[in-house]
Amino acid sequence: MYNNALYYPNASRRMATFGKRGMVATSQPLAAQVGISILQQGGNAIDAAIATAAALTVVEPTSNGIGSDAFAIVWVNGKLHGLNASGPAPQAATIEAIKALGHDTIPNHGMLPVTVPGAPAAWAMLSERFGKLPFAQLLAPAIALAEEGFAVTPVIHQMWQEAFTTYSAYSEAAFKPWFDTFAPKGRAPRPDEMWSSPDHANSLNAIANTKAEAFYKGELADAIDAFSQKHGGLLRKEDLAAYQPEWVDPISIRYKGHDIWEIPPNGSGMIVLQALGMLERLEACPGNTLETLHRRIEATKLAYMDGFKHITERADMAPSIEQMLDDGYLKARAALIGEQAVDPVHGNPLQGGTVYLATADSDGNMVSFIQSNFKGFGSGMVVPGTGISLQNRGWSFSLDPKHANALAPGKRTYHTIIPGFITKDNQAVGPFGVMGGYMQPQGQLQVVTAMLEDHLNPQAALDMPRWKWTKGTTVEVEADFPNHLALALASRGHHIVKVADSISFGRGQIILRDPDSGVLQGGTEPRTDGAVLPL
Questions:
Q1: What is the C-alpha to C-alpha distance for residues 345 and 328, in angstroms, rounded to an integer?
Q2: Which residues pair with 434 in a beta bridge?
Q3: Rounded to the nearest 5 degrees, what angle is found at the Cα of 457, between the Cα atoms of 452 and 463?
Q4: Which H/E stretch holds residue 329?
Q5: 426 inside domain
Q6: pLDDT the model gives residue 347
Q7: Which of 117, 135, 210, 441 is most buried (most C-beta within 10 Å)?
Q8: Model confidence over 318-330: pLDDT tens digits?
């Protein structure tokens, strides 16, 4: 399946990776090796995903950490299960409290945007429900990596340097632990330089030995609480102790004979489903490359505007999921896509910094897993003596009480990180994801359409030059995006901007299973240190 000619001629000469007994795909080779080693020890795809996720907090701290949030879609015994491990705002986090501190918007750094981290609880809950191996065994490789260190790659160095520059603008004492932990030599680690973190290892060890209880109710929770109180944060041990991830039913849309699955709101996977739903309701234009690209961009824009307007904690959404994915509504939105690019607006359905990994095992289990600090290292807040870098997901909340995503105690905010999954005829095809902030839904749309409409294999779909809508009619494209297509899109009213930095266009992973042979076919991201390893 999915191995026909490339959508963009000569965009890639790399082939997909094949395997039969298992596979792990993620953005860092050492983490992928950890996942494969767990499969070799008799673990299943869920065990491999947990171990890989924990290892990624060590070898890619520039994107995620122990203080991250997480989401997962798991295929086990012929059924999909969704896990929402995004954390809520602290009970003390009110609009009035933030404004009383002199803020008109929630700051992106410092303790105020820190919400309850969900990743450690996600690991423990996945292990308890679906894992085979002991939880401590899954975290052991990550602990060893943190103790012994790893060689920093040029890609990781670039992101580390960006964070160093960002946090250097702050003089507050609260940022000192970040520099003590992640820049002990007064600079970001250089490429090929070894970096280790004994504090990180100790925290992972505490989480491993208590199945994450130490993080939410024990010594790590005490350390987080004390640091938050010292530096004006609102997060307290009581917020951590009360936290539990939520098992959810994934939601889907039909596209090209397949079902595309996402986690329901507060995740932004709804944007992917809406955009694909619009495209599915347009008359086919086979062979018309310009029209195809134009439609995909316009559908993405329209879906994003709905997402920004309506997506928040599910219980607080005015339009329901069913209303936003209603056939008549999607047809009406699709009808807005014309010959020229438009400055999009949201509709009214009521009228009608991140890592991603995918795993698979020989028993047919598959996992789509994503965890993130939001942008880069997140808030810039590192709990002294723990190596725990806290995410800043609360930055997404609005301080406008009339906004759907208005801040409220115990509420989960609009979330950019979204794992995806494909099924066909009630059988698993496989997990996919593209990390990278607000690039994620449009990155997912690009790889799904590339595979299911353009018939590319997973590797070719990931290698394909990407575009990224930013605002209005502005669309950024990668440096190797074909000039003739860029010019043609400009003639349709798109403001095309070529960007040299490929990292900003997302980093994805894909594993697909052939329903007849059971052979696995994987692809990994060329824009980072990606690796897809078969077993």
A1: 18
A2: 508
A3: 105
A4: helix 327-334
A5: no
A6: 56
A7: 117
A8: 788 999 999 999 9
Q: With a cut of 50, say whether residue 352 has pLDDT above it.
A: no
Structure tokens at 327: 């056939």
Q: How many domains does the chain have?
A: 1
Q: Are 299 and 336 in contact (CB under 8 A)?
A: no
Cα 155 from chain centre = 18
The distance in angstroms from the start CA to the end CA of the chain is 20
Q: From CA 318, how far away is CA 328, in angstroms rounded? A: 18
Which of 334, 325, 382 minimizes the C-alpha distance to 170?
382
Q: Is residue 169 part of a domain?
A: yes
The CA distance from 442 to 344, in Å, is 15
Distances from the Cα of 36 to the Cαs of 56, 109, 524, 531, in angstroms? 14, 36, 15, 11
Q: At what angle do helices 135-148 and 119-130 cross, to 10 degrees?
A: 140
Alpha helices in 168-197 (DSSP H): 176-182
Distance CA 126, CA 135 (A): 10
3-state secondary structure of 260: strand
pLDDT in tens, 122-165: 999 999 999 999 999 999 999 999 999 999 999 999 999 999 99
Residue 295 lies in a domain: no
Q: What confidence tens digit (pLDDT) does each residue in 372-388 have?
A: 998 889 999 999 999 99
Amino acid at 386: T
> What is the residue range of 382's domain?
21-247+355-396
Beta pairing partners, 70: 85, 371
Three-state SS at 150: strand
Residue 386 domain-assigned? Answer: yes
Long-range contacts of 464-469 (CB under 8 A, 24+ apart): 464/6, 464/7, 464/8, 464/11, 464/12, 465/8, 465/11, 466/505, 466/506, 467/293, 467/297, 467/442, 468/439, 468/442, 468/499, 468/504, 468/505, 468/506, 469/297, 469/300, 469/301, 469/304, 469/442
Q: By C-alpha distance, which of 215, 168, 223 is closest to 377? A: 168
**DSSP letter string, 437-499:** GGGHHHHHHHHHHHHHTS---HHHHHHS--EEEEETTEEEEETTS-HHHHHHHHHTT-EEEEE
The CA-CA-CA angle for residues 356, 362, 363, to 5°, reads 100
CA separation for the pair 497, 476 (Å, rounded): 5
- The CA distances from residue 355 to 37, 63, 384, 486, in Å, are 20, 6, 24, 29
Q: Which whole-number Å values give the CA distances from 314 to 139, 268, 414, 488, 515, in the listed order? A: 32, 11, 10, 40, 34
Rg from Cα positions in the chain = 22
Q: Which tokens sit at 30?
A: 């050492």
Return the exposure string of 454-479: e unless at least 16 CB atoms fall within 10 Å of the residue's CB, then b.
bbbbbbbbbbbbbbbbeeebebbbbe
Active site residues: 354
CA distance 127 to 50: 8
